[in-house]
Design brief:
It contains six helices and two strands. With about 200 residues, the chain is mainly alpha-helical. It has a two-stranded parallel ribbon with strand order 1-2. α1 packs across α4, α1 packs across α5 and α4 crosses α5. The radius of gyration is 19 Å and the shape is globular.
Amino acid sequence: MGSDSLAEMPAGVRTACVSVILFAVFSCAGWIYETVDNVFTFGGFYLRASLMLPWCPIYGVGGLVIVCAMEPVRRRLAARMPLALQVAVVCVGIYALTALVELAGSYVCEAAMGYVPWDYSGAWLNFDGRIAPAYTLRFVVLGLVALYVVYPAVAKWAGRHGRAAIALAAALAFLFVADNALEVAGVWAPVKDALVPFGIEHW
């Protein structure tokens, strides 16, 4: 019986599996964050983003960008400076990256859906309602958790359970593609409408 270690599999397979799992984890975490924030801000439960399943893809993209860009930086800094200074530098990098991802994401959403799903027009120093320092700072905290906690945990688990990681990544990729296809086909629209009487709105 061959080894179950993901490290023994082709580099492309390792990267793809870990990336898909991370994307799903970050997307689901973003959905949870948005849902809780909406409950406290607007007093209601909203199905965030355009998809039916519980994930916000922009958080998945942002999380992957942070991990891919900042993990090599973090490793280099770890050998050269104290942890506190290392984290401070990483925070600056995450701030810049999350601002760019959210700004770019707003234009992609506007082009694809005809509107931007968020509006920071009332926030201090906002840019066209698309990004604002107060919100970007929140994402810095989420980015630190993604880089220092979630990524190492997922990479470690996937490395030890190669076949399970491949199966999970394949299932998650299928669900994401299917969710998008059903949304585009309009299948989810009546389902979302049917949830409204139960106090579940779609945003």
